[in-house]
Each structure stands twice: as C-alpha cells, then as structure tokens.
Specification:
Strand order of the largest sheet: 1-3-2
Strand content: 5-15%
Order of helices and strands: HHEHHEEEEEH
Structural class: alpha+beta
Distance between the termini: 37 Å
Number of strands: 6
Number of helices: 5
Largest sheet: 3 strands, antiparallel
Shape: globular
Radius of gyration: 17 Å
C-alpha cells in the first residue's frame, strides 16, 4: 500500500503540482482498482470532505494524461480507473455483475502488440477484454 509521501513523489515525478485532491484521488484509485468515478468521488469526499464532481473529474483527467492512472471503459460500462499502468495488461469482465480483474498477457512480455497487419502504425498498446462469468456468478447460476 502506498503512502501520502509516495503519492506526492509520484505527482512531482510527473511534473504535477501536489494538491490534496490529487493525493486523495491517487490514494482512492490505488485502494479501489477499477473504481468508477462516483465511487472515487465518495472515497475522496470521505477523506477530504466536500469536493466537487468537477474537481475529481479534472484530477482524473490530469492523472490519466500524466500516465499515473489508466482509464478503461469496457463496452456497456462506465469509465473506470486503475493505478496499474505501463505494462499492457488486459481485463476480464463478468457479464452478470460487472466485476473486473486484471489479466496479464498469456505468453511473453506483450505478444498482443504484434498485430497480424499493423497498417503502418507503430503499436504501443493493445486493449483486450475477456468476457465471462466471475466465480460468484457462476456459483449462483449452478445453485
């Protein structure tokens, strides 16, 4: 678990000014991976008191642009944020409850970055989403 000092260092390393809302949002996302904006707002308000929706949206946008957070949005879902960045991992999403989990590339460092036809693009990221049922939903269906 990271500390306030770690988050302040991360912000400075990304050339961002250290503010209480930025530290609170980083902390919230580190503690609640794949959280949606409303959940993050709730956690930040619990830590700081009244913070506007717009302030949290602005912080999320700045932290994502700086590469400190990653924004994902599986089809049919609201945007979610995670602190695991820079490793080109993927996600598995439960069709029933919407739970999301990280999935590493199946073989090697990032085999998914080798497209069958890159159309001249320099590929630096692939977004793969696996769909299915989480263990809890699978158990519920079998009952």
């Amino acid at each position: 678990m990271s500390s306030t000092v770690d988050f302040e260092s991360m912000l400075r390393g990304a050339a961002l000014r250290v503010t209480r809302p930025r530290v609170a949002v980083l902390s919230a996302v580190h503690e609640h991976s794949h959280a949606d904006t409303d959940s993050i707002i709730g956690v930040v308000r619990g830590a700081l008191g009244e913070v506007s929706h717009q302030a949290v949206y602005d912080v999320l946008r700045a932290l994502t642009a700086a590469g400190l957070l990653r924004r994902i949005q599986p089809p049919g879902s609201v945007a979610r944020y995670e602190a695991r960045v820079g490793d080109n991992h993927h996600h598995v999403v439960c069709r029933s409850c919407g739970a999301i989990a990280d999935v590493d590339c199946a073989v090697g460092p990032a085999p998914c970055l080798t497209a069958s036809d890159d159309h001249g693009f320099t590929i630096d990221e692939a977004e793969v989403i696996f769909w299915g049922l989480c263990p809890g939903c699978t158990t519920t269906l079998k009952s």
